[in-house]
Amino acid sequence: MADWYYHDAAQGRVGPLSVEDMQARYRDRRLQRDTLVWREGLREWQPADRLSEELGLDAIQPDASRPPPLPAAAPIAMTPSAAASGYAGASVRTDMRHAPAPKRGMSGCLIAVIVLAVLGLPVLGILAAIALPAYQDYTVRAKVMQSFSEANALKAAVAEHMAANGRCPSNGDDGFGDAQDYATATTAQIKIGTMQNGHCAMELELRGLGPGADGKTVWFEAQQQGNAVNWDCTGGDLPGRYRPQECRGQAAP
């Protein structure tokens, strides 16, 4: 006859037992209908209720004077080979051997970071290529405006001289220094004199502004209209992007 086993919450696997032993345990309520049982030939553990006919449980009345066993957590499923060997741990190791191996590779978050980095670097490069020249142009314009501000006082003196003497002053005239006398951190020199078209003008030569602007010039051409003198600042070779809007005119960008 086949040897039977059943799982007890406190003792674990119990057996081998005969059919009569299984019936006795069912009678004194140590074995319930939902107790997992196994015998050789079964592929897996089954509730006793499924094998009640084979075990002869239907004809047995459990002893009502005995309390049923306390409920317990579901037992670890054991393979038939583990039950026959008498070592439940073998089932655990067997299940672990058949468990799928953990997937190796990069996590989704890491992949996302790499993708963003790969896509982001060119974008950052483009933004830098746009922003850096724009910032450099801004700093040059700020220095140009500083030089223009320093020349404003001299424009007023030139206009007064024209009104008082009826002619354009030159460097070295009374009240006017040499061209280099007007040098500052952003101004190399200021030349004063009459242009070929007969207009009085000042030529402002810049320095300390950086490549593309150092050594460039701006002409302030006096245009007398009645008693007023207006100044045109579109002349010279300073690129238009470094000039204030009113001084760009036809200057190269």
UniProtKB/TrEMBL annotation:
Key words, A-Z: Membrane, Transmembrane, Transmembrane helix
Single GO biological process annotation from the record: cell adhesion
Listed InterPro entries: GYF_2, Pilin, Pilin-like
Keyword Iron: no
Domain GYF span(s) in chain numbering: 4-53
Keyword Repeat belongs to the record: no
Xref: Gene3D superfamilies: Glycoprotein, Type 4 Pilin
Listed transmembrane segments: 110-135
Domain of life: Bacteria
GO cellular component assignments: pilus
Entry similarity comment: Belongs to the N-Me-Phe pilin family.
Protein name: DUF4339 domain-containing protein
Organism of provenance: Lysobacter silvisoli
Lineage: Bacteria, Pseudomonadati, Pseudomonadota, Gammaproteobacteria, Lysobacterales
